[in-house]
Fold this sequence. Notes:
The chain is α+β, with helices and mostly antiparallel strands. The chain has one domain: Class II aldolase/adducin N-terminal domain (L-fuculose-1-phosphate Aldolase, 3-Layer(aba) Sandwich). Helices cover 36% and strands 13% of the residues. The protein has eight helices and seven strands; from the N terminus they run αβββαβαβααββααα. Strands 3-2-1-4-7-6-5 form a seven-stranded mixed sheet, sandwiched between helices. Helix 1 packs parallel to helix 6, helix 2 crosses helix 5 and helix 6 packs across helix 8. The longest helix is centred in the C-terminal third of the chain and has 24 residues. It starts with 5 loop residues before the first helix and ends in a 17-residue tail after the last helix.
Amino acid sequence: MRDRPQRLLDKLVAASRILVREGVLDVFGHLSIRDERNPDVFWLSTALPASRVEAKDMMAFDLAGEPLEPAMAPLFSERYIHAAILRVRPDVNAVCHHHSASLMPFCITGVPLRAVSQTGAFMGVRVRQWDSADSFGATRLLVDSPEQANSLAASLGPDSIILMRGHGATVAGRSLEDVTFKSVFSCRDADALRSALLLGSPVALSEQEIALAGQPAGPALERAWAHWTAPGETRREPLAERVIP
């Protein structure tokens, strides 16, 4: 049995619960964290819904996406997403892949997802979209091979988020707090943009505004984490799940 970083795994469980409450993760999707002691190792749960995962369900993987201990439960076939991004991005320490209803409309239309608020500025001028069919033809729309994951990681480049045609989104963060913030607030910007499109022509942030706002600052991440971990904090209903007349 590997020496388990219990504090880190408990925090990974907490982040998973937050993303469930915020409507980012549901039956599907997964969240990983790089091991603080060994950058060539990351932790990801076995193939359970994020709402049910516990610290004991977390397993260590290498940066090829292979488990470092015998697997006693089914594994996520898309663990290669996490491995590929963590391998090529030393600045990234946490990865979330999800299929939030807030972002899915931008994964299946030609409407670009653009930052429209200060908390969404980290998304940049325009969120890129990766299409598995471009290089791999028809697939199951699962990134279940190292080759597909490598292609996705290359398309992500230095960005924090990438959309996946017909599939969802992948978010990269500097920490669990960072990836949680980015996963939640990219969905909130998507909700705001969808709502604004019903009213008229939304005004996206300019390149200069995005440059000035930059990545979420440490105090903002700490404030958000304190809010989400406060006793009694309940799930926010995503705009995408409401009936819009």
